[in-house]
Amino acid sequence: MSRPERWTTAVLDVEAPGGLAVVQGDQGFLLDANGVMFPRGWLAGQDLPVQSEHGIGYFEGEPVYLLVLERSVAVEGCAWQGLRQFMLEGDFAVFQMLGYAAQVSTWAREHRFCGACGRATVQIRGERAMFCEHDNLRLYPRISPSMIVLVTRGDEILLARSPRFVTGMYSALAGFVEPGESAEDCVHREVMEEVQVRIKNLKYRGSQCWPFPHSMMLGFHAEYESGEIVPQAEEIEDARWFHVDDLPPLPANRSIARYLIEAYLAERSGAPEPVLPG
């Protein structure tokens, strides 16, 4: 796990001089041979189509700002890269920073105007909120709670794949929590909806921020109780029991889905439990 002090969120004053900045457009984040963080002063001279700017925190003690662009543009010596690629390849602390930046960017784009009256909103200084003066309404970044659960049956684990997954990859079952529903109720409902299986002995294992675009994944482990697998039409392309010694391609190493799977494998083999990335 990355040291907590490498990346710390904070609401920084965009009027302050200096610092570093990350840039997000519709193709992802801007990067060059030195990485994804640029001197803020250098970016000011690049004639970028900046929609908004936000102070997002400190990386290894340096203030970091986010420039949200109206569109991606060509910048000499630079390229664009999606957030998932940073998760797969890069420094996890950098991914944490960019994941937060991506969520701030989504919030900023979606709350430029008040949803009640349609008037333009303004950023509140010193607070991560947009404000509509007409309705006296504060609009904060949204977090959508969701659950992910690994269902097991002795040496077998239940994995499924969505049509949206990379070819061949299987993962644990997941879904969003509905209004008025507990996370535990959500787990039971989603498992029944997606594969028609009943579960028991549900245990919470941990959580992970999932910035695609703004979820909080609550991870669970459950044991199989009864039922035959029937994949949900249009949602589940395939679902089956896999023996722990014969698994398909799995989700990314830093994902909570992979953690749940590897934690169970460690439990069965007596190996040390893996660490869930923060």
TrEMBL record:
Q: Which residues bind a divalent metal cation 2?
A: 190
* PROSITE patterns attached to this UniProt entry: NUDIX
Q: What are the Nudix hydrolase domain coordinates in residue numbering?
A: 141-264
Which InterPro entries does the record associate with it? NAD-cap_RNA_hydrolase_NudC (IPR050241), NADH_PPase-like_N (IPR015375), NudC-like_C (IPR049734), NUDIX_hydrolase-like_dom_sf (IPR015797), NUDIX_hydrolase_dom (IPR000086), RNA_Hydrolase_NudC (IPR022925), Znr_NADH_PPase (IPR015376)
This protein's record includes keyword Protein biosynthesis: no
Cellular component (GO) terms are: cytosol
Q: Superkingdom, according to UniProt? A: Bacteria
Q: How is the cofactor bound?
A: Divalent metal cations. Mg(2+) or Mn(2+).
Name the EC number(s): 3.6.1.-, 3.6.1.22
Q: How does it assemble?
A: Homodimer.
Query: What is this protein for, i.e. what is its function?
Result: mRNA decapping enzyme that specifically removes the nicotinamide adenine dinucleotide (NAD) cap from a subset of mRNAs by hydrolyzing the diphosphate linkage to produce nicotinamide mononucleotide (NMN) and 5' monophosphate mRNA. The NAD-cap is present at the 5'-end of some mRNAs and stabilizes RNA against 5'-processing. Has preference for mRNAs with a 5'-end purine. Catalyzes the hydrolysis of a broad range of dinucleotide pyrophosphates.
Q: This protein is called what?
A: NAD-capped RNA hydrolase NudC
Question: Its gene?
Answer: nudC
